[in-house]
Design a protein that fits this description.
This protein has 295 residues and is mainly α. It has helices at residues 2-33, 38-69, 76-90, 130-181, 187-202, 221-235, 239-249, 259-264, 287-294, and strands at 103-104, 107-108, 111-113, 118-120, 126-127. The strands form 2 sheets. A 3-stranded antiparallel sheet has the order 3-4-5, with no helix packed on it. Strands 1-2 form a two-stranded antiparallel sheet. The chain starts with a helix and ends with a helix.
């Protein structure tokens, strides 16, 4: 309805605008060519049209109020009686078990059809049972809300499982790193390396601290590349972030290697003290730790 009114208003404004422009052009042309002032001829016509329109509207409104206040003069009372009878018929009626008909004031109360759940009026008209429809709507809404509640609960459970899995992965990484680098690092350096792993997991790459392996038993570049790949594979870290992590943690051992080189060669086939430990699909545990526990 609002769009229809807007369209009509736009059309009316277009017509009025075109009329005003046309009137101005014609008036200017007549005044310039023939020295005829169009306002002298059109002003009385416009004023007369406005007076007639206003008079008609006022007269119409005046007689409308008179007729509405004195409806008995035009037999409007019959229409009022018809409206009151219709409203009485349309009021909800309680259905009897035997579906019998009662008469009140000479009017017939509508029958109730138990099978269809509809009220049948005299004359074959049927009115839908609004109460039944409302009940169905309420039931469907309750069902929808129950499914939404279940969905929210499922999402919450999934989030809890993800957090629990991340905690288990980090515990497995710490155990693996501690066991693997213990022969090559001091206890203080192991703690720094574990802290660097935490920073890599949360993306704080600017917080890395450098350490150095034992001079008598140093870690070599293949060892460190494999270590970075094994850790990053469990944590889901991209290869470049793994290379930055291991380069910043062991700058002395990797002084001749660039980040780009480390990124390309994290998982190579060069023999090393720390081998590549590829996890099984969907698992995060380290194979070397499984063998240690079994032994």
């Amino acid at each position: 309805m609002a769009n229809y009114i807007q369209i009509r208003a736009k059309k009316a404004s277009d017509v009025i605008g075109a009329g005003v422009i046309s009137y101005a052009l014609i008036g200017s042309f007549l005044l310039y060519k023939f020295h005829i002032n169009l306002m002298e001829y059109t002003t009385p016509i416009i004023l007369g049209f406005v007076v007639i329109t206003v008079s008609f509207a006022c007269t119409k409104r005046f007689f409308y109020h008179i007729m509405m206040e004195n409806s008995n003069l035009l037999s409007f009372s019959m229409q009022k009686e018809f409206i009151s009878v219709s409203s009485t018929i349309n009021e909800p009626q309680k259905a009897n078990n035997d579906t019998q008909e009662n008469e009140v004031g000479g009017q017939e109360i509508p029958k109730v059809d138990k099978k269809s759940g509809q009220e049948t009026l005299k004359g074959g008209q049927e009115i839908l049972n609004d109460t039944k429809n409302d009940t169905r709507n309420d039931t469907s809404k309750d069902t929808s809300y129950s499914y939404l509640d279940k969905y929210a609960m499922l999402q919450e459970n999934i989030e809890k499982e993800n957090i629990k899995r991340k905690v288990l992965i980090m515990e497995a990484v710490r155990e693996y790193v501690t066991y693997t680098v213990a022969p090559y690092l001091k206890k203080e350096d192991v703690l720094i390396l574990l802290e660097n792993i935490n920073c890599m997991a949360i993306g704080h790459t600017s917080s890395y601290k450098s350490i150095r392996s034992d001079l008598n038993n140093p870690l070599r570049s293949p060892d460190l590349r494999h270590l970075a790949w094994n850790i990053g594979e469990r944590l889901g870290i991209p290869n470049r972030e793994r290379a930055i992590f291991i380069k910043a943690s062991f700058p002395f051992e990797l002084r001749d290697a660039t980040v780009e080189y480390l990124e390309r060669n994290l998982r190579d086939v060069i023999p090393a003290s720390i081998p590549i430990d590829r996890p099984a699909k969907g698992d995060y545990k380290f194979n070397s730790m499984k063998k240690t526990i079994a032994a």
